[in-house]
Here is the input.
Amino acid sequence: MIEAARSKVVPVAEWEVLAARQDVRRARKNALLTSIFGAVGLATVLLVFVLVAIIAYKGAPTISWEFLTQPPREGMSAGGVAPMILGSLLLMLGAFLLATPLGVFGGICLAEYGERSRLMRLMHASVAALAGTPPIVYGLFGLAIFVLKFHFGVSLIAGWCTLTLFCVPSIVLTTESALKTVPAALIDGGLALGLSRWQTLWRIALPYALPGILTGIILSLGRAVGEATPVLFTASVYYSTAEMTLGWDTLRQPVANLPYYLAEGYRQPGVVPERLIWGACLTLIILTLLLNAGAILIRSRMRRRYL
Amino acid sequence: MWRIRLFDNLVQVATWAAGGLLLLTIVAVFYYLFTESKYAFQRQFPFGFRIALQPPHSEYRDEVSMDPTASLLATHREGTDELDDAEDATRLPSHEELMQMQSLVTATAQTDDPNQLRADALFRDCMRAPKRAEQGERFLLVAFALPNYTADTMELAWEPDVSFDPAYCPYQLRLRLVRAPQGVQVDPIEIDLRRQPKGRIALPVWKAHTQEEWLQGYLFELEARPTTSTTWATLQQFLKPDWAPTILYARFGMLPLLLATLLITFLAVGLATPLGLAAAVYLSEQASPRIREWFKPILEILAAIPTVVLGYFGVMLIAPALQQLFGEALQLSSGRGLLATALMMTVFILPTVISLSEDALRAVPNSLREGAEALGLTLAERVRLVLLPAAKSGLMAAGLLAIARVMGETMIVWILSGGTPTMPDFSSPTAALGTLVKPTRGIPDTIAIEMGNVEFESPHYGHLFLLGLTLFVLTLGINLLGFAYRKRAQVQL
Amino acid sequence: MKRTTLMIGLGILMVLAGGVTAYTLSQQSITLKGSDTMLILNQRWAEAYGRVNPRVSVSVTGGGSSIGINALINGVTDICASSRPMRKSEIDRARSRGVVVNEIPVALDGLAVCVHESNPVDSLTMDQLRRIYIGQITNWRQVGGPDLPIVAFSRDSNSGTYGFFQQQVLKNQNWGRGVRFMPSTSEEAREVARTPGGIGYGGVAYFKNRSGIKILKIAAKEGEPAYAPTEENVRNRKYPIWRYLYFYTNGKPRGEVAKFIEWVRSKEGQSLVEEVGYYSLNP
Here is the structure.
């Protein structure tokens, strides 16, 4: 037995050699894995570029002044998508006007009273639950309640209500978290100076949290513009000769919008030419990107002002 | 001074009002989601059979409906309770006219009381308003031959009506001989139509010579008795593997939809998680701050692409590619199916996975990293042995939130999944491949497709709400689990 | 403080002024929902009517005849466009909701059956067509064609064309297992053009002038001559699968809706029908 053990004992130098070999193996494995990580990172970037590039390549030739300002003509095979762009913007505007006050003040309410009572905690949990609900559930709800039960019909106002419902939970959550980041020192300082609770809120906490709140609002709206499901059966129309005026009529009429145009247009390959659809895809992406970029810009500029 | 107090009060009132409205909306959303589903339980369960006397050994052995000498009988359809013979059912003509048209007759009566049978109130078809599962139904059938019938036996044949599947019927269905004609000896006949939905039985020939004699022919009874209540029957059917809400005998089994959604989610998250995790590791451990600064906006661009656009991209470019790859082998008409959907879903969920995973990894305190460095671990080992276990809760949260988002995503599934509800089949490798690339349909896009097509407050409408409720509860559960893990991650670190 | 109140006041005034003027100058609107078969037709009518009568706007949505019928029953649309007649159960349901169904034919159509252009089969009988779609006939050689499996395409269940086909051709029998359901006729045509063994059906306007497919002649019974869905054959009902395309309204149409429907049935409106590829009511 001692002979066997002795034969296993290796001189120090060899042991070091073995350890070195082990190190080499580990180093190789490390190199492989890190390069895989890097490759995946690179592949993701490439994926985004390729995706956007293909859509831009297919859609850019269609985008022209005519495309952006003219309604569809000749059986949807020519002309542009102006009513759809206008409709999408109208929907977004209405959702903005309705969801912002409700969402921001709701967020303030949760931030101020959030931990006080069981009811408040339940509300917080419900809002979080609603924020994570799939948009199709909002679409179904909107159809059943606003379009059918409340007899709004398929109309702009039903679309506004549904989109508002869709946006409010996330605005509430972002407002609340933005308010929570206000340093306690600032609030205490305000109270120490003799400001009332609401004054501290309005003049100190809110301005501090404003960039975050605005970002949250604009990002929500960006989602609202791009989501087809909440507006699919509550506000959309394939083609309409209606002129959108500032009257009550427009509220009760359906609006054409970009996501619905895409969702319906692709189903009619013989009628709506492919290039128009790609053009609309590109327009929608650019619209969403502009919104998101605007949000980021606002956030960075306001940050600089306050900090 | 008063201005400040007024302002204060205004802001306070606004906050309270918003809180109240918020509460109201939350309550309304939950309330309506639950209560609108109640219409699903007002379902009526129609059933239908074709029962007719047939000559034996006829060329129409297997097709009851094709024998011109037989007649359609006891079909149970939507209609009014009064038999409108102009539109719904055909009254039997006079004896002479009948003899010119056929030689075997099966007819039904409007009453289910044998003593109230009248020869001039017999109908070729029978259509009555569908009953709910709690109520039963009884049909009386009269069967006889006419003098011009020449063969020496006749058979009573029965089969379920087109698209009616007795397995989906919550009734106990029974065909029973009530009374044989005078002087005819025949064994008692009692057939359980659920166990034997299709069959034939021989009867001794009996001829009726006048209209009055019709009522002295064979008298059968088709009885439907409920086996469960409507509520329970609806729930049971909801879990069956057949979704066909617009056919006559509607079926609302959501199993294929659920399985398709689960498969898509499984595939998409299964594909996106390793890729996203690898990219997140790269971002948090290897990339220089400059690269990180560029990476974030690029991810945000990907996240900003609307799902409709992703769906269109998929249908124009990915599906045809899949069609080219697998089209010949599996005889596909288009590449739309689970695989195409899962691929575009991966693209959709990748930015979310990457950013959430990166947040989780960055939350790990640097002391752990320094410790690993001190122990001489390589980067890969540090990731595997230290970071991933430390960030486990956060990564679980990321995965769960991604699952919830993928489950609820509608447009990609609608455009790319193919549109026909199909049950997944993994019995053989070919079948498994077929399931992946053949058309199918998930829960969210079923809601979207059929939403425009429902009548307000009909059972179909109620079932769509049940589907929405299922989706809501599923995503809610997963989200809650994700939040719990996130909280755990915050506590741990 | 004074400035802000002034600004707010002016703003409200402007909005009110705009709203009031717009209200007086506002348009009347007509909603038209339903059949995908008629979508190209409805859209053209809407476009042209917008030039004839700019004070009235027409909004057109597709989705399928069932969607239009349900919209009519739910009271969400003025006119429902349907490529099949309403069923008695639907009329009853409408009545139970207080909707009186009024049927107005607006165009004639031959439901065309198309196959891949390389398919030598030229015509089919109604019975053969039925047996293909219920799954009894599965290979082209069973109807005199090459040895090629049949791939049958159909519209999906939202479609009136689907309902009409099931009622008239399939005689209410069940669809075969291998039938592929497509969401629109244009897509059906595209798939048939891509599939050598394909067969599909739809409104004749979608198949005319479509490359890659050819329209079959249909015979009513074995032994009878087969007819193509040309205008003549549809008008004299020789082509077996002819149908009307309908508008449905709630009660007799009134006001602008009545004027629009009248225009649609006039010479001007009907000439657009011919342009799109369907057939006008009267020659």
Observations:
- The CA atoms of residues 28 and 264 of chain C lie 17 Å apart.
- The two ends of chain C are 73 Å apart (CA to CA).
- Residues 2-24 of chain C form the longest helix (23 residues).
- Residues 21-25 of chain C have pLDDT under 50 and may be disordered.
